[in-house]
Design goal:
The structure holds two protein chains of two kinds.
Chain A: H1 2-31, H2 35-40, H3 52-59, H4 61-94, H5 100-111, H6 115-129, H7 135-159, H8 164-171, H9 176-187, H10 189-205, H11 208-213, H12 221-225, E1 229-230, E2 233-234, H13 236-263
Antiparallel strand pairs in A: 1-2
Helix pairs in contact in A: 1-13, 3-4, 3-13, 4-7, 4-10, 5-7, 7-10, 8-9, 10-13
Chain B: H1 11-37, E1 39-41, E2 47-49, H2 53-59, H3 62-92, H4 97-108, H5 115-125, H6 132-139, H7 150-178, H8 182-191, H9 195-206, H10 208-223, H11 227-232, H12 244-254, H13 258-294
Antiparallel strand pairs in B: 1-2
Helix pairs in contact in B: 1-13, 2-13, 3-7, 3-10, 7-10, 10-13, 12-13
The chains are: A mainly alpha, B mainly alpha.
Amino acid sequence: MNENRFQKRTLFLILYIVFALLPIYWMVNMSFKTNAEILSSFSFFPRHFTWDNYRTIFTDPAWYSGYLNSLIIVAINMTISISVALPAAYAFSRYSFIGDKHLFFWLLTNRMTPPAVFLLPFFQLYSTLGLMDTHIAVALAHLVFNVPLAVWILEGFMSGIPREIDETAYIDGYSFPRFFLTIFLPLIKAGVGVTAFFCFMFSWVELLLARTLTSVDAKPIVATMTRTVSASGMDWATLAAAGVLTIVPGAIVIWFVRHYIAKGFAMGRV
Amino acid sequence: MLSSKPVNQKAWWLVLPVVICVAFSAVLPLMTVVNYSLQDIFSPERRVFVGTEWFALVMRDDELHAALWRQLGFSLAVLTVEIPLGIMLALAMPAKGWKASAVLVMVALSLLIPWNVVGTIWQIYGRADIGLLGAMLQKMGFDYSYTGNATHAWLTVLSMDVWHWTPLVALLCFAGLRSIPAAYYQAARIDGASKFAIFRYIQLPKMRGVLMIAVLLRFMDSFMIYTEPFVLTGGGPGNSTTFLSQYLTQKAVGQFDLGPAAAFSLIYFLIILLLCFILYNWMQRVGTTDKEGAGHE
């Protein structure tokens, strides 16, 4: 019976993976076709195999700079999110102070604001500050949803570390910054990795704010992609190729954090 | 339960950077929205204070009510499908070795695709003439068309969301499951516990924290869904897949009604806030009564 059970699970897993990969396969398939072939016939494999779509992306600066801009934006956003979230998460997991629970929930509420609500105010705010079309503007705008999430996840990891460790370190004469950087941070390395993955994910794929706050110099790849919709119709093939390339950086990130996820986290008290 | 933490008001200093960050990127814009919602704006120089007029107008809007119910139905459907499916998936995923890594990456792939690309892929994928899904359904004898039939369109948007976001639930649950010490399972085996008992009394309680994140994130994000259905169906056919965010954007950008759009935004935000608050407190209570019941933790 146990054997049977095992097989049922494996079967379910395989079915899900097929369900998950088919649309992606279709995109990869499309990325090697020409537009004419995509629209004219149904086929499981490209009949006229072509690298042209990828060549367009790698040679046209408007395309590849989109990837660079996206990477810069995400990197800035991740750095800010994690560095402000670390001390806050520590405070929430270790101390009680006036309004701590309210503050924690208030942080979460910012994750709940539809980006559409913020479009216009952000536009005005960043125009006034002269930050329009810069990487930092988009990175700051994405803090709205990434900082609360980072605090939440990190707090969960930190609550899993026994408080005795802090106390022992203070008795041994460690100062707070030294304790935090040399003892505590290595202990929650997995948490930082997982948080970085989530920040990366949500910032990498966000379109609405990114498109509104940039025009040329800092335009991220998701916004560049909307260019494929033009008067002459959709450029499906190039879009598919660009889509395939957007998965690559994320796949690399998850490859790095896979051990942290596989090691497990239960998110303490939340 | 939490009183064991020492009281230390200086901890506020550690929280301050986050508060400043969020104040700059969330509170400031929100104040602007409040400001808009109370005025009639003809141009930047000419504006009139109108009080709560916009709120009254928006509250009476029948289309908004329709969009709200559609949205609630959709979010509910998303949660009822994705949460159990994600848990099952997490239970089925291999725990160790290269297989675990490979499955983890494959499952996570759909999360990393930009949202507009998700919509575009499904747009082709669902087409009966050149898309795999559409062609398969046609072969099986369904007269499937997501552009013509409202039910089909709704189901397509739902399956797209399931495809896109179930991995998030699965990844979180997987991480929760992996944190359970092997000793728990050994104890359960000695007691002769059934598979279901193990799930109910060991795995589910241990996943509580991550499940809470998963449920809240999925709820918030499905309630704010915009890009994917916009690209896939454009809200149609008719209004069948016009959810709140899209209706709002139509108002704000399309008709350029700043005042009503701002009032709408605030009401929208308050609805999410209220529902999340209920969900958050309910899940926290369910979790703690569970713990007391289990006793041995």
